[in-house]
Design brief:
The chain is an alpha+beta fold. It is 34% helix and 12% strand. The relative contact order is 0.14.
Length: 115
Amino acid sequence: MRGHGTLEPLAPWELFEREVARVLDGYRISRSEEMFESAADVIVPDVDLVVDAKLRRGFTHHDMVATIRAKYCTAGQVPVLVSRTPGTREAFVALPLKDFADLLSKIRTQGGKEQ
C-alpha cells in the first residue's frame, strides 16, 4: 500500500484527503487496495461531518467564490457561495476550506455537538 511504510509516494488525491482531515480535525478513511470500495474520504465526528474530498481541475464554484472574494470582501470577511439548481428545493454552500475550518473552531469552542 502506498504511504504505509513503503517507498511509494502517496498520490495527490491521497495527500489532499489527508490535508482535509488535518484542517478539519477529522480522520481520513483508509481504503484497502480495492479502490472501488465505497466510503467517505474524511469523517469529522464531533460535528457529524461526512466529507468527500475531490481534487479536480476546473470547478466552476471555485471561480465564483474567488470572484465573490475579489468583488465584495474586505480583509477578514468570508466569501460564501450559496447555489441551487432551478426546479429543486435544496441549496448548497461553498466556502474556502480554511474559512470553514475557522467556523468549525468557533463552534467547537462554544460547545460542539450536544451529547
